[in-house]
Amino acid sequence: MDALDLLLNRRSIAKLSAPAPEGQALENIIRAGLRAPDHAGLTPWRFVISQGEGLGKLSDILVKAAVAENSEQVVIDKVKNAPFRAPMVITVIAKVTSHDKVPALEQYLSAGCAVQAMQMAAVAQGFQAFWRSGKWMFHDEVHQAFGLEGEDQIVGFLYLGTPGCTPMKVPERDLSKFVEYL
Ligand SMILES: Cc1cc2nc3c(=O)[nH]c(=O)nc-3n(C[C@H](O)[C@H](O)[C@H](O)COP(=O)(O)O)c2cc1C
User: Fold this and answer.
1) Is 39 part of any known ligand binding site?
2) Where are the domains positioned within the chain?
3) Which residues line ligand 1 (CB under 6 A)?
4) 3-177 in CATH: which number?
5) What does the pLDDT average to over 120-147?
6) How many other CB atoms sit within 10 Å of the CB of residue 55?
7) pLDDT tens, 41-98?
């Protein structure tokens, strides 16, 4: 797949089914994440892969957070089912190192770039990915379960699998609304 075509025309697809990427395809996805821009070489990334039983463990972690907030049963049921919307979920964590010249924000941005790079690598190999977040990714119970420390943050849950439908058309956007010249 042509790189520019991928950049200009990628769409997210939420409907994802098996198979998930594995072997070389999965390794390529992780390696793409590891090519995210990285000021001072801090490598501020952790990628936690959930599949099979791992999806059940992720579900348990989210449910624990929802229960800790005394959430209504309907909310608990929703978070319980959430990880099963794809055969694989990669939780992407910004692992923040204290550094004079590289504030935490830059490290969060780097981890965000890693998410998009992994999404692109998935699409380039015939898979699909959907970047999800939600309030639970900021919850202490979830942070504890994933072993976050200090200023670490979860920047997203990247749902991965095989597309269950064709992507929607790319929205037309008027460049003049976004671009200015100084
Ligand atoms: C940091 C981040 C978090 C997101 N979280 C969610 C989410 O929880 N649920 C959701 O439906 N879309 C979420 N999105 C948006 C989708 O991943 C997707 O980009 C959006 O549906 C637009 O589709 P497109 O990528 O094809 O333009 C998030 C995007 C970003 C950048």
Assistant:
1) yes
2) 3-177
3) 11-12, 130-134, 156
4) 3.40.109.10
5) 97
6) 18
7) 999 999 999 999 999 999 999 999 999 999 999 999 999 999 999 999 999 999 999 9
